[in-house]
Amino acid sequence: MHPMHHHTIVTWFGLLLAMLMATVPARAATAEFSLELSPRKVTIDGRTADALTINGTLPGPLLRFREGDDVVIHVTSRMKDLSALHWHGLLVPPGMDGVPGLGGFKGIAPGETFTYRFRARQSGTYWYHAHSGTQEQAGLYAPLIIDPQDADPIQAQRDHVILLSDFTTEDGSEILRNLKGNHEYYNRGRRTAGDFVRDTREKGLGPTLKDRADWGDMRMDPTDLADVSGYTFLVNGKSPAGNWTGLFTPGERVRLRIINGSAMSFMDVRIPGLKMIVVQADGQNVEPVVVDEFRIAPAETYDVIVTPRDDRAYTLFAEPIDRSGYAAATLAPRDGMRGEIPERRPRTILTMEDMGMAHGDHAGHAGHGNHAGHEPAVATPGRPSGWADASTPKGQRALRYADLRSLTPQPDTRAAEREITVRLGGSMKRYIWTLNGQTMADAEPVSLKFNERIKLTFINETMMAHPMHLHGMFVQLLNGQPAERLPSKHTVTIEPGKSYTVMLTANEPGEWAFHCHLLYHMASGMMTRVTVGPLQGEQPTAHHP
């Protein structure tokens, strides 16, 4: 055969093969992991406690895979009780979501292995944790990162995971018993006679007496910011003394993936000397927002970019809102360095506005309208007042939900077909928490049709903030941004005495958990089920957020 003819045949064969290959979808890679849940003693700051671990560590190992991967996770339980792992914020089939009793999932019995299988349909920063009893509090939590299939729009030279958590030597069931016996069991910041004298001097005797009488009538305490206190606050399992350190070279763009894996603790996060550029919220990319600090609820995640230019150590500082301690870590050019611990912020005091009673309305209903995510209340002279007031210094910027704009256009901007109201309530005295007046044991599921567009309005009738988490789907905050730029979140904080509205496209068929992510609120009834069923004749289709 003439060489030219041979070359031509080979070329055409190559082109034909390339055309055939182009019509065959690329096989997804498989990301496979093995996890073991087991009790183990851990020692932090010299205190040894019975903890629960994943592969022997607290927190558990980072799981990292790629968008489009087929994910296989074998979970073996060495626990004495039923257990489960939930992939927080991930879009997975209902039976793989990891909530015992929902979606056909029965939990993982002692000595058994359950294999989770799902396709990674998204990217971003997430986490995973136990969803059985109070096992999450005891140490069953860990970070999870999904890298995007295509080029990441967030460019950085370094990438550090910062997992915040609240550690206690107390058993979770004991904490719950203490709260049921006396809801103020852990409130160590009650107002004193000294506070009364100072308030009288600043506001006058009449207003001070009226304030005390108003709170007394409601049998509530304006210092009741956190149900549980006495925690040691950790960064990646290390106390401030343990000094977790993330390295950088001066001038680098450093990405910090900040996850609040606390059971009960809202945290105010700052890095003195560094501006933070918020680039992702709850795993979903947002238009960059430059801030000095932000408040992060249990279960929320924020990715930020920092650019440390000096050859020195910086302190990442996270204070719980009741100021009962702090978590601290170091960003430094070399190991062994430690940044300064900044001045502690004062504890805030709740106001009548936090009870929806700013204008003398003692009916106990919440104010309406979106209080766009941690807007600071007007404080009286002296101690700061209002749940959302973090004592941010004048001239510095704290992130608000209203600042968040989706980086990419929302795929569904339809108007709502109907509105659903969810009232957040309960009895502090009996330590029972409810959704629309019912606990999980009594509630009928919230029933949605497939692809239905819902306006979901939360009305908080309590003096506690509630981070509300819907499994299986993202909601969009109605935060004042245009419809195509509303940010998507899996966890939404509803402030005391306020209301907040989100949009939801019910495009994930199945049975999903819907609850407050404060562990002891959920365990005390603040949870229900949401069911999504396909419309007659329609086939459900996968949705990429």
Structural overview:
It contains five helices and 30 strands. The protein is mostly beta strands and 545 residues long. The chain has three domains: 30-150, Immunoglobulin-like (Sandwich), CATH 2.60.40.420; 153-187 and 223-347, Immunoglobulin-like (Sandwich); 351-545, Cupredoxins -  blue copper proteins (Immunoglobulin-like), CATH 2.60.40.
User: Kindly state the mean pLDDT as a whole number?
Assistant: 87
Radius of gyration equals 25 Å
Distance between the termini: 56 Å
The total of beta strands comes to 30
Alpha-beta content class? mainly beta
Structural shape: globular
CATH topology value of the largest domain = Immunoglobulin-like
Give the CATH architecture of the largest domain: Sandwich
Q: Which spans have pLDDT < 50 for at least 5 consecutive residues? A: 3-25, 358-369, 371-381
How many helices? The count is: 5
Fraction of helical residues: 10-25%
Give the total of domains: 3
